[in-house]
Write a structure and sequence with these properties.
- By secondary structure, the protein is mainly α.
- The chain has one domain.
- The chain is built from 3 helices and no strands.
């Protein structure tokens, strides 16, 4: 039982280590912003938050949101390949790139 709990904690960490790093950095810079407010620590906190959200977007949100958008645009199953390719480019390339730049 104990080894299962340790393995579960390890696998959770391994799955989310990048997010955990961004979130810990966000909490630390937010703490610094509250203690001694300045513009650079606030910008760093916002940047780390955007990077954390971008990581979660890539890992968990992307496929579902893309499929939901395609289903709402083509409810009868008809699909226009050029529109589908543009939607795929927006969700797979443009949004992650913009989140990376903002972060």
């Amino acid at each position: 039982m104990e080894s299962n709990a340790i393995q579960t904690l390890y696998l959770t960490y391994a799955h989310n280590k990048e997010f955990i790093g961004y979130f810990v950095g966000f909490c630390f810079t937010l703490f610094l912003t509250i203690i001694k407010p300045n513009r650079s620590s606030l910008i760093a906190a916002i940047g780390l938050l955007v990077l954390a959200l971008g990581f979660q977007y890539d890992k968990h949100i992307l496929q579902g949101l893309q499929q939901q958008t395609l289903d709402s645009l083509f409810p009868n199953g008809a699909n226009d390949m050029s529109v589908q390719q543009k939607i795929t480019k927006v969700f797979n390339y443009i949004i992650p790139f913009v989140m990376w730049i903002v972060g």
